[in-house]
Amino acid sequence: MTIIEEVSSPFEDQRPGTSGLRKTVEQFSQPRYLENFIQAVLDTCTELRGGTLILGGDGRYYTETAIDTILRMAAANGVGRVLVGRDGLFSTPAVSATIRRRGAAGGILLTASHNPGGPDGDFGVKYNIANGGPAPEPVTEAIYARSLEIHGYHITQEHAEVDLSREGATEVEGMPVEVIDPVADYRALMAELFDFDALRALLGSGTFSMVFDAMHGVTGPYARAILEEDLGAPRGTVINGEPKPDFAGCQPDPNPVHARDLMERMYRHDAPDFGAASDGDGDRNMIVGRHFFVNPSDSLAVIADHLDAIPGYRGRVSGVARSMPTSRAVDRVAEARGYECFETPTGWKFFGNLLDADRVQLCGEESFGTSSDHVREKDGLWAVLAWLSILAASRESVEAVVRGHWSRYGRDFYSRRDYEGLTREQGERLMAHLRDRLPGLAGAPTAAGPRVTEADEFGYTDPIDGHTTTGQGIRLWFDNGARAVLRLSGTGTAGATLRIYLEKREGDPLRHNDECRDVLKDVAEAVREVAEVTAITGRKEPSLVV
Ligand code: VG1
Ligand code: CO
Prior knowledge:
The protein is α/β, with parallel strands linked by helices.
């Protein structure tokens, strides 16, 4: 036997955030750091003993080292077998699909999603359970608790020596390991959900053009297989389609600021009809029409209004869910269609129980995340196929679809303002100070104009398992009908990011062309004033406006 037990001692900072444990590569490279966390996962998630584990990620720097360590530790801890994506690649939604299709016990995803990669970038580890979704909070808390009492870990003495570049079966210390095509299961699933003939007709009509920006992340191979091979989009439709360990120095975050290549193409005079981008691990999506950006909250509402017409969903949509900071546009669609509508804390893990219980079939977040009950993760390419289905059926432009939606339901002007790179202390002080003053905020005038009418801190009790989560963002309602939400990011790896989400509904179609910036200007100022943002952070302006 060449299985050994190495002595270790706990790290205090291994509490998973919004989406797994994210740290800099430098932090992950410390001796015993990754090992401790993986041992905590293996100790906590006993279903892995004798069970199948799916392993892979967005291919970012440090992936190969991590895969070797995880294979050796899986073998040493009695995992039944491991299926690894070829080249260590697996998009987040594809891991979810593969866990479900193959009845695996769980999956380990190696990704820090939209965070930068490379030796100076970030790395991340996330555990997904047998339903294919991110481990829910009771599990992540148990993993964290275990990480605080780790005093050793089990590992094979030898390296795993698995050739990740070739599909095939091998073993590590008696544990079967199979390198598999990470695209196959996912691709088959998409063909089951969508009307591929209709999509082929659209893409081959000669009157429709599109571009998909994979942002050097993991989605490239998936998008090429599905859009170009299966649906007949011309070669070259997928840009930045080669996964790169450092995302070619870009931040793989699909928003108008970071997806520059795509935005540049979509605003040219000869722009294609449809554009989309996804993030490093393939779970986010940005939708853009010709000269027309689709706000993610609107995208969710539009998809909700059309989901029932897509083959995989016909006659079986009964509920939708959105994260709390996501605009309420989808709520009105739900009301009109008689769907149940749920509001959950930020993070996909909070949708899992609702999906498992078949209470909702569609979920979304303002942060460019949309997906359905086909997996238990958000799914960038799925959202693209949903949009293509809507366009194929209506033969309208993206802009016409969204404008039609607004005239039917009203428009929710929406914007998120991030204050990145604050110190942890600044972020926490700002939130604590606001929390302390919550009871007195209502009614006080602001120099900017809008008055707070109501203020609270969001908490959530899961309607399925009764688990309660508190401190999920401070909400302010204003007398001009606007809403603001303030919360700290739980995915960063240094300092703090304050997110301020603003929205205001406008029912009057004559005002739907107003500039978002102008509509939200006074409420943005009122929030800054009420939360004392400048006084506490020293910042006059946000560093990122989406
Ligand atoms: C952010 C988003 C949240 C999303 C999470 C993970 O979290 O706001 O909606 O679920 O990222 O997405 P936070 O705590 O930083 O606001 V991904 O694509 O990074 O896995
Ligand atoms: Co992601």
